[in-house]
Structures are given as structure tokens and as C-alpha cells.
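Input:
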Amino acid sequence: MRNALGRELPDYIDGFGDLHAYGQLTVASLPDKTALPIPSADDNCSKLVPDLRTALKICSVRDGATLSFHHHLRNGDHVMNMVLQEAARMGLRDLRIAPSSIFPVHEPLVRLIEAGVVRTIHTGYVSGPVADSITRGLLAGPAILQTHGGRARAIEAGELPIDVAFIAAPTADDYGNINGVSGPNACGTLGYAMVDARFAKRVVAVTDNLVSYPACPVDITQEWVDLVVKVESIGEASRIVSGTTRITDDFVGLAIAATAAKVIEAAGFIENGFSFQTGAGGISLAVAGFVKNAMQRKGVTGSFASGGVTAQIVEMLEQGLFQTVFDVQCFDLRAVGSYRANRAHQAMSASMYASPAQRGAVVNRLDAMILGAAEVDMQFNVNVTTTANGRLIGGSGGHSDTAAGSKLAIVTTRLTAGTHAKIVESVSTVTTPGASIDVVVTEAGVAVNPLRAELAGRLSAAGIALVPIARLYDLAREASVAGQILKPRDSSTRVVALQQYRDGSIIDVIRAIR
Amino acid sequence: MRNALGRELPDYIDGFGDLHAYGQLTVASLPDKTALPIPSADDNCSKLVPDLRTALKICSVRDGATLSFHHHLRNGDHVMNMVLQEAARMGLRDLRIAPSSIFPVHEPLVRLIEAGVVRTIHTGYVSGPVADSITRGLLAGPAILQTHGGRARAIEAGELPIDVAFIAAPTADDYGNINGVSGPNACGTLGYAMVDARFAKRVVAVTDNLVSYPACPVDITQEWVDLVVKVESIGEASRIVSGTTRITDDFVGLAIAATAAKVIEAAGFIENGFSFQTGAGGISLAVAGFVKNAMQRKGVTGSFASGGVTAQIVEMLEQGLFQTVFDVQCFDLRAVGSYRANRAHQAMSASMYASPAQRGAVVNRLDAMILGAAEVDMQFNVNVTTTANGRLIGGSGGHSDTAAGSKLAIVTTRLTAGTHAKIVESVSTVTTPGASIDVVVTEAGVAVNPLRAELAGRLSAAGIALVPIARLYDLAREASVAGQILKPRDSSTRVVALQQYRDGSIIDVIRAIR
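Output:
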């Protein structure tokens, strides 16, 4: 045969097969073996479309479609509300939504659930009115609560196929290059969105800071993004990142934090190469302060700090206490600025952070992890999903992932919160299995998981007084108001949410409360 | 049912389906929907294996397997030779190899082809003894010559499934984080390897600079890498990057370059937002110099420069002539240093660079591209694959991709090389179709593709004298030694290589010469 240029070609060649002659193929006609999307840019090489409605139409969003969102704008996010309200106006129904987290700002979602626009929710964390509506049984089926790593795994494994990922983009150009470090709603890294961008069938960037091509730096690159929509505002900056994160100044909290830092040192981890993660709560931040002191005293250089990143961690990086920071999400403006300026402050995707199915997550290399708890029980199981009486207030986020991956997972908690015990016989909801938890640190003593006898020996040798978890349970019960110990709920009540473990299995269920 | 923690769960929930109880799943047992590899790290969280043989065994490499390599170490690369020689010692046969390019240093491959260890080659560029052996018909089947963007497309689309990607890693840690900016064989960005790392079933990092975890910065992250092998040397630094790339100082070459720069300006591209790519050849570099002058004279700030990057481009970035550089491969030490230090000098994957099947490659946004040619013909078709008499000497690399994507694709060439004409009636091999070529610039005049009448008008209006391509052909024929115009080869001769266009179609075939 001859191709379009008149070149003589064989029709078939041994060792190769049939030949496609030049001029006969178009890229769009390639076999769709990996669901690779067709190029969406028009001839002018712009992916800009005028509004969200146009984007939803071009992406062929139909009833029952799955839309994903990320939560780097946290309680200042406008994007999920805008997209879903537009979907409602278009008459779409029965949507499955997969935001990486849901905050009080997403309250309009409640009405969209009631109206049948949203049918199912998959998320890593949910608080506020949406959580309350789930607890009340508003969804037709159960909400699926995932861990951050489990969400990445489910997306990568094809368990949670996403039709369209909407990426709130603090900065974008008209060809889909995105960064989170510039613009009025700069939020820092975009670690959760990276997984959605890689695996969603269609990816739409929504930005209020459209810059000339190419956006620089680029955190999510153009070859993953189909469309770009410019909107007036993607969020409310003051609710996205706090100006500063505050260390606890309460005596009990500081005492718990100091003990947690001693546990890390006694366990032998404050050595060169030490790696560390902690949350943004008051006690967690205080632990970072005590760990910093210990590292400085011993002249130790750590390998990395990871996680959601705060000013405290940035300071440790800048003081040379860590070689690098792996950052899935910036918690404050100092972290945003550090990520913008310091090459040792690196973004990581949710998959790199915590997926159990990838070739190795950062959590697997973590020495010490500081965890919070709503409740801890006699088997060291931890609940960060519900209140003691079963009301949905959160979910794992990275809790189970970091607990499973780290060598030393420390829960720091007071014995009681308000009137009720936090150390209980059996947690109302298991978020993280006790097998992943090594130590519980309270103001009344330190309990080591009996599975970790060697660790208990080290701590005792270092002069840390250990108590059995049962003793903490007794103390907590004594310190709490009588009658606050709730009896197990009726298992015939309807299941309103499933707490998925990072591997996709169900570690517990959440039942309706009216 | 009850799960492993004793929690009571329904077996089935409407809207969700059957529940997997916690404790019953292992991650490895997940359905392999996306061919997501199982985690390969051992319990110590190290992916280090003692040698290449062990890596080949763990990756279950069998006869007929496909192994990929990247060419950022160019003619200093030791990794492909080491891996294939180990495969030969293990008795493996009929391997398909997919290096992004092949250089003279890969001469040992000839004996491995003869011995039946290597059966097929897919590559973007091949020169030296391996190219000669292909021309002679040493391979059982045809070699597949791809464009850089076409190779990325084929890998992403599943047309070229890779069993194991070997990544020559100037720096790596024991968990597979890789960068190209440190170590004795620092080569800069790793753009070609990024695609292999994402899509290969198994990924092996081969390094001579093993650093403590985590390598920082990270160009290819740990979640894509299965194994790490430490070897004595991955390459010979002096052959990887040149200390400096040299601008031509020959009068004819400079005249051609000056004209090419004038064409860009006359076409109206030297304006704010201008984007530019050129190669590392002497004329191409000289064009960059003239373009720099024009940009400075007009006070223009360009958007980006792209491609394989040289000191000339780095200087333009540092002088503020471009906002950013997109770099798939560093051509000299200055580029390596710039990529290491300057956040505006960004890596891009081969897919982001040039794939026609992704959601939009960088080449699509390119204004002006300077291209070389072994031959150009009356239809503006360009040959960079073979000599005039059909001997394999290269291949497209990014030639066809940038020509197709850029708004202004300029071929710069002398009329003759040595004794033979370079402007010919019909190129011996079509690499890039004439439809993609806008202008041919020679020392004897400028020819505009008749398809681009509007462009011809602009150039004429700017005082650039245009000549028909037929006139350049006549002049080249007159200037060349009689008898150098070769007659078409016999189409019954065996096909030894296929020149694939970026969409996977066959644009030409290369036939055996003995």
C-alpha cells in the first residue's frame, strides 16, 4: 500500500503485524485501552470555558455521575458548593460526590441531598451540618468514610471511578497548569487533588487567578487537565489557612505533650535520620516543640517531617532539624510561604503520602506519629469518627494511614472531655485498629500496647512510668460524670455510614441517630 | 457478620453492596483493575537489592519481556549495557527493548542482537553501531522508530506495554526517590523516564549515588519505583553533558541563523508571550542568540522556552527574556545547574512535552521551533532518520512533535552537505511530513510552504526575499557533485525499520543496505 505521502509500505510485517499507514489514523481513534481522554483543547489551544455549566455539559455529566473535589481550601472552599448548585440548576440527580473532606462551609449540600441532587458521599473526613445530616439518615445509602490513603487507593484501583474531578486552583493558566502558591486564595500544596487529576476521566480546574501561560511553578500540569473555568472567587482566604497555628498553653495539654516527646526519645528515635509527623491541634503542636528541643539538645538531623504542615514544622526545617518536608497540605500561611520558596519543602500526592497499594508510601518510613482521639478503648482502638454517643464528627483522614505506617504511633489525649470519659471499654466507632497504636499518653500516665513488650521495656528503662490501659480506663471513668458511659446502640438501627479501613474493608459502621 | 475487631456489620447494604469485613482483605488481594503493582518493599521498608540479576529475577523477567531505558545519560550511559549483559548471562532471549534513544556507547547491543538476546527495538533515535546493524538487517523484525511524543503516547495507550523500566538514577535513596541533579553523573531533568516510571509494570532505579532517605529534591517519587540497585557507575560524566554547547562560528551557518531569526520576527512572533524551542546544534544555538538580540531590542518578555535545554536558553531565562523553561532533558552543565537552582526552570515529562494523545502537550503552545534536516524535499518533507542513501543515522526524537505543534516550524539547513544535495526531489526517508513544516531557511534563500500563503505575505512585507522550494532544489543540485542524486531503492528489499509518526501510523519504512 501507499500512505498519504505516497510512500510504499508493506501491509504487514512479521514481528510487527498490520501497518497503519500515515494519514489514516487520528489520535482520537486510537483504541481506548487505558481510558486516556481525547484532547479537549480547541484549535486555539485554550481550555477556557465560560462557566461551570459549560464545563459540566462538555464533560457529559449525567444523573448518577461521580464528581470529586479536594479540601485544600478547607472551611473556606467555595468550589464544591458552586459546582453542585450549578448541577442542581441543570436538573442533575443522584450524583455521587467524592470530596477528600467536607467542612461546615459545605452546609448547602444538605439541601442538595434532600432534593435528590446528591445521592452518595465518599470522603475522608466530614464535619458540620453535612455530618449531622448523615447522622440523621438523610442519605438514601450509607456515606463511605475513607482514610486519605484509602481514598487514593480506591481511586487508583478503579474502585472509585471519578467522572469529573473539579480542582479548586488558586492559580491556573488557560491550558490547565495549576499551582496553589499564588493568588488571593493560595493554599499551598495540592496533594489530595493530584490523585484525582491523574485518574479522573475528566479534570476541570476552577480558578479565580487566571494567569498568562504558563503558570509557574506548576503543581498539577496541563496534560492532566481538560477544562479551565474562571470564577469570581474560589474561596474565602481567611478560612482556608490560619495565619498562625497555636500551641496549647494549657498546663494539662503541655504535660501530655512533654511526656509524648519523652516517649519518642526513650524509644530511641531521636537520632540522625529521625522522621516525624504531627497534627495541627494544640497538643500535637506542643509535641513538635518538645521534640525540637530534644533534637537540638542531642544535635540530631532528622530525615523528614511529613503531613499537613504547620509553621512549627517549617521552623524545624529552616533550623536544619530536618532535611526535607513532604507536604500533602499546608495548614498555615507560613507553610504556604515555605513551600513556595524552599525546594526542601516538597509536595506529595495523597498516594505518595499514604496509599497502602502503591509501591511504598511516605507513612511507611515514618518513625514517630502523634495522633489525636475522640475515644481510645481497652484494645487501643481509636475513634476519631464519632462522638461517644455515635454522632458523626470527622473520620480518619490520615489517622489510620499514619498509625499503620509509623514505627511509633502515639495517641495523646486527656482522660476526659467535658463530662465524659475518653478512655473507654469499647469505642463507639473504631476508626483506627488498636494493633496500629503503640502508646497512649494521658495526663494520668502512659500505656503501652501489650503487643509492644520491647517498647515497654525501653520506656521503663528510661524512667517513664507505665500504667495498664485498664488503669487509665478506671481513672477516666472516675473523673467523668456518672451516666456518661453509654451502652452499645441497637444494631437493628439503620447504617448511615461505613468507616472504611485503608484497604477498603469495613472497620465499623455508623448508625442513625434521630 | 462480625469483623476481626468484633464489630457487628451487615453483610450487604443497599447502595453499597457486599461488605468486606476488616481483617479479611489484604491489599495484594485487591482486584488488579489498573495493573497497580503490589508493594515490593520488604518489612524494613527498603527496596534495595544487591545487584541487577536479583532485580531481574524479582521482576520475573522472562524470554520475550519488554525492558525500557531512558537516554538522559546519552553517550555516557552505562545502564542499558549493564542490564542487557546481565540478562544475557542469565540466558534470557528475545527481549524487546524500548530505550528512548540509542547512542554509539550502546555498541555492545550489536552482539546481543546477534546472540538472540535482543529481538526487537523501539526507540526515538538511534545512532552509531546499533543503527548500522539495523541498516544491515541484523534484527529479525523491523526496528520501530518513534517520535518522543509518540513513544509517550504508545506507552500511555498500552500499545507499548513495558515489563520493567530501568531508570538510570544520578541520585536515589533506598525507597526509590530519584533525582538527576546530584551525584557524579548528574544529568538534570528525567523527562523521558517519567513516562516509563508511571506506566511500566515494574520500575527499577539503578544508581551510583545512593543517599540517605529521602533524596531531595525528588524528580521521580518513591510510589512509582519497585526496586533500587546500587552499582559502581551508571555512566561516564564527560559524555553525558557537555561542559558547554558551541554556537556555530562558520559564516554560512551564522547567515542562516540570522535569517531564521528574521523570519520569526517578520512573522510577528517577537512579542510578549513569545515561546521558543531550538536544538543543540551549532546553527540552532546561533538562532537562539539572534532571537535573544531581537527580544532585547524589542523589550519583549517571552512566556516559555522548551525542549532539550542549553546554556543559551538558561541565559535567556536568567535575563528575564522568558518567564519559565520547560525542560525534558538538559544538554549541558549550565542547564543542569539552572534546573537544580531555579524554580522557573521546570522539568516536564515526555508526555507533557509532546504526546499527541494527552490533554495538551507543551509543543501545542510553541510559537517558533528551529529544526534541523538531513534532507528536505519539494513537498517540504524532512528526513532526519537516514542518510541520502538510506543508512539509519537518527530518527525523529522530538522533530515531528515540535513541527506539528508549533505555529512556526523553521528548518535551517545548508544547500549541500559534503558532496551531496540536502534539498532534494524526494527525501530518502520521511521523518516529518511537509504539512508540518512552514519555512525552509538556507544560505541561498528562504522558501515558505505554499500551504502558508499568509505567512509568505508577512515575510515578503518585511523585506525577506522568498524563493520557491524548487529553486532551492535546483541550486542544491547544481552545487552538489554529479551522480550524488540517488535513485529510489528497490521496494522489494527487506524492511529493517519503520518510521512511526507520533500517532502510531507508519510514515515511512527503512530498507536493508548490505
